[in-house]
Amino acid sequence: MKRYRIAVVPGDNIGPEVISAGCTVLRRLEALGRCGFDFETFPWGAGHYLRTGRAAPEDVVEQVRPFDAIYFGAHGDPARVPDRISSRELMHPIRRGLDLYVNLRPVRFIRGMTSPLKAPEGIDFVVVRENTEGEYANVGGQVHAGDTHEVAMQTTVITRRGAERVMRYAFALARERGGKRYVHCVTKSNALAHVMELWDRTFEAVAADYPDVRTGKSHVDAMSMYVVTRPASFDVVVTTNLMGDIISDEAAAVVGSIGLAAGANLDPTRAGPSMFEPIHGSARDIAARASPIRWRRFAPRR
Ligand code: IPM
Ligand code: MG
Predict the structure, then answer these.
(1) 103-136: string of b/e by CB count within 10 Å (b at 16+)?
(2) Is 2 a known active-site residue?
């Protein structure tokens, strides 16, 4: 029986409750005898920041690299730790450091969910969000901080290689899904004429290699409407980092709840582990209502 080593990062607030439930499901799979899991838990996040002054150790990427996969809970504690800290010291180093360039976010209506739409049946698409550059490239800085004339700049970085590889993934996925075979590109090239023009042009070049896959394109403002007005028309949606972040939360709400929305941060080359996480936040307001968590059950066997 193949055993997989999983790095588990339970996170903060509701994070450990959700991850604990997920580990229970994995243990059940194990009991069915198909495969086995060895969990190792890493206590990183806002709590770790409060205890140690860092949300994760500086060598976080090297610590998780040897695993087969990373199972990652929501992190953060906005009342006590600025939100950007655990993202900057924990999540983004892993996404970028392991080159997890696809952030895959399935959007599917499951019967029993309560959608704000009248007829949510048939909604089944996947958001393919670029995950290592774009608006999140972390290029910028502040000058004269704290002064009356302080300045902040943050630059979006689109590279031909970065756009092309995530788009190729989207087209291959549309083929693999074998449904509508339709890739919809989200852009904003009517306003962001430099970066999104390159994005659009790359999309057209990649699309030419997949003549059997239909394509469409919307600016993100219109797309935010279509996610509500015609969500069932989509199959694979490819978009930049920040636009994908926003569209995927909107889409999760449209099918009923961000509480059920899953995300996979993938390195399709499989050079290292990929990371799997729910896309919701740490939800302090509803944390600690579930039954107590028994972490010992998931402790690694030694
Ligand atoms: C997500 C989250 C993160 C992001 C936050 C926590 C920085 O919203 O994974 O969607 O914006 O990428
Ligand atoms: Mg998000």
Answers:
(1) bbbbbbbeeeeebebeebeebbbbbbbbbbbbbb
(2) no
In ligand 1, the atom with minimum distance to the C-alpha of 74 is: 6
At residue 212, φ and ψ (nearest 5 deg) are: -85, 0
- The pLDDT confidence band at residue 129, using thresholds 50, 70 and 90, is very high
Tell me the ligand closest to 263's alpha carbon.
Answer: 1
Q: What is the SS3 assignment for 104?
A: strand
**Digit-coded pLDDT (tens) for 174-227:** 999 999 999 999 999 999 999 999 999 999 999 999 999 999 999 999 999 999
Length of the chain measured in residues: 302
**Which ligand does the CA of 11 lie closest to?**
1
Ligand 2 centre to CA of 110 (Å) is: 21
Q: Whose CA is nearest to atom 8 of ligand 1?
A: 245
Q: What is the pTM of this model?
A: 0.94
Mutate to test the pocket of ligand 1, among 9, 89, 91, 138 (most ligand atoms within 8 A of CB): 91
Domains of the chain, CATH where assigned: 1-100+267-302 (3.40.718.10), 101-260 (3.40.718.10)
Tell me if residue 15 falls in helix, strand or coil: helix
3-state secondary structure of 290: coil
